[in-house]
């Protein structure tokens, strides 16, 4: 898609002009991830309606690659079904970011996608819990 | 000695000194960062970028570029044997010190560190540019690698139980104790086992830096290292995960405190922690 310099410019653009950045106050689910030890922290906020990630935003701080990657992921999966996020390949994300550029920082490159996947996982777990609790309540009633 | 009490204060330059020498043709600035895309966002005018992963590693075997490769790199960056190379970078000059050590390994004489690194330069509002430096290629002849500043696994094995040696483990306390196999965020660079080399003292590398990225005073550094038995009369080996953080400690011990015999074990924990039957201590 790009040559090495093109990938670098693309990452810098996402870092300096982040898309989908900012807290969503009433997000359906939000979750933090990252590498606190090396300074990369990302929080993903997702508003979910009818199995669709209607709005995806992130907040965070850290190195260029981690923050650019989080922005790319939030932009890419906004409006997508949750299954697309669950099936998303971190390897494909690395290729999109420019494997040659991010190869020595793969954890930084994947913190965004990893955290977003974690958010969907959390949402599914919460739903299952709610359904069990609702079923229990019905039984008791 | 300078007011900060360093053994070799001449190896440190301040940001103002660098600003005054930007157009000095005998100086080459080299930026080496942990955040590998910082340089592209703006660097000190005239600086070249050293990417440790791209520029100084042998592409096949685990080693640095060989002498010819180093000479070619210097040539491309317009560095001759007489050039004064000034290193700077992010995160307390972590990679800048690693680069300094590597240049010393190939015998480059005129090497300096900009105290406080990139963060201090930026905090002072000094200029950064995205323009590529204009470079006239140079001719460079490297010396044979200086293994007196580099330790290998057998050297480390020989220190165990020998009181004339001292090992300093500069990784995070969780890596040292054995709680973690690798540094946060570097899962791909772990080892088979966690812990530390028997007898090693834990002194995380960044302990040597002030909040603004400058180095602590000699008195403070002597207390930090001497307080744990890392003293100048000993043969010292510093290690971390792959020898980058420990190169910072090597710089502190040799240049700022003047310890005569310090080696950096770049095989570090990724090697030792994977060696069959290598002795290991754990605190967890």
In short:
The complex is a heterodimer of chains A (141) and B (284). By secondary structure, chain A is an alpha+beta fold.
Structure explained in plain terms:
Chain A has helices at residues 4-16, 64-77, 82-87, 90-97, 99-102, 106-140, and strands at residues 29-35, 40-49, 52-61. Chain A has a single domain, classed as Sufe protein. Chain: A (Alpha-Beta Complex), CATH 3.90.1010. Chain A has a 3-stranded antiparallel sheet. With 141 residues, chain A is an alpha+beta fold. Chain B is an alpha/beta fold. Chain B has helices spanning 15-20, 38-41, 52-55, 67-76, 94-105, 117-123, 153-159, 173-177, 218-226, 245-256, 268-272; strands at residues 12-13, 27-31, 48-49, 84-88, 111-114, 150-151, 165-169, 201-202, 235-239, 262-265. In chain B, helix 5 crosses helix 10 (245-256). The longest helix of chain B is centred in the middle third of the chain and has 12 residues, at 94-105. The termini of chain B are far apart. The interface between A and B is medium-sized, with 23 and 16 residues.
Q: Helical percent range of chain A?
A: 55-70%
Mean pLDDT across every amino acid position of chain A:
94
Biggest sheet record of chain A? 3 strands, antiparallel
Structural class of chain B: alpha/beta
């Amino acid at each position: 898609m790009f040559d090495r310099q093109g990938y670098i410019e693309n990452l810098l653009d996402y870092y300096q002009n982040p898309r989908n950045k900012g807290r969503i106050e009433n997000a359906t689910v939000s979750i933090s991830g990252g590498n606190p030890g090396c300074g990369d922290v990302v929080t993903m906020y997702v508003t979910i309606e009818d199995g669709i990630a209607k709005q995806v935003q992130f907040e965070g701080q850290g190195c260029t690659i981690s923050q650019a990657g989080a922005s790319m992921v939030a932009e890419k999966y906004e409006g997508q079904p949750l299954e697309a996020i669950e099936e998303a390949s971190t390897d494909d994300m690395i290729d999109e970011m420019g494997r040659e550029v991010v190869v020595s920082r793969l954890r930084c490159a994947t913190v965004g996608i990893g955290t977003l996947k974690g958010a969907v996982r959390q949402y599914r777990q919460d739903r299952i819990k709610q359904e069990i609790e609702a079923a229990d309540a019905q039984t008791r009633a | 000695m300078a007011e900060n009490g360093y053994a070799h204060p001449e190896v440190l330059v301040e940001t103002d000194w660098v600003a005054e020498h930007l157009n000095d043709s005998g100086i080459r600035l080299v930026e080496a960062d942990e955040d590998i895309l910082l340089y592209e966002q703006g660097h000190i005018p005239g600086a070249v970028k050293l990417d440790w992963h791209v520029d100084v590693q042998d592409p096949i075997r685990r080693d640095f570029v060989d002498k010819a490769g180093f000479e070619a790199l210097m040539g491309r960056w317009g560095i001759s044997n007489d050039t004064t190379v000034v290193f700077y970078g992010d995160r307390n000059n972590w990679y800048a010190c690693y680069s300094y050590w590597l240049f010393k390994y190939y015998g480059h004489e005129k090497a300096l560190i900009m105290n406080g690194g990139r963060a201090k330069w930026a905090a002072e509002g000094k200029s950064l540019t995205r323009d590529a430096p204009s470079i006239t290629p140079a001719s460079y002849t490297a010396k044979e690698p200086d293994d007196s500043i580099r330790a290998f696994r057998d050297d480390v094995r020989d220190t165990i139980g020998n009181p004339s040696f001292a090992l300093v483990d500069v990784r995070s306390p969780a890596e040292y104790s054995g709680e973690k196999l690798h540094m946060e965020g570097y899962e791909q660079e772990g080892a088979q086992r966690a812990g530390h080399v028997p007898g090693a003292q834990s002194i995380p590398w960044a302990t040597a830096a002030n909040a603004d990225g400058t180095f602590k005073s000699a008195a403070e550094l002597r207390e930090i290292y001497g307080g744990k038995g890392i003293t100048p009369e000993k043969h010292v080996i510093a290690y971390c995960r792959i020898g980058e953080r420990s190169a910072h400690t090597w710089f502190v011990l040799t240049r700022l405190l003047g310890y005569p015999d310090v080696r950096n074990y770049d095989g570090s924990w990724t090697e030792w922690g994977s060696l069959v039957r290598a002795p290991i201590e754990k605190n967890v």
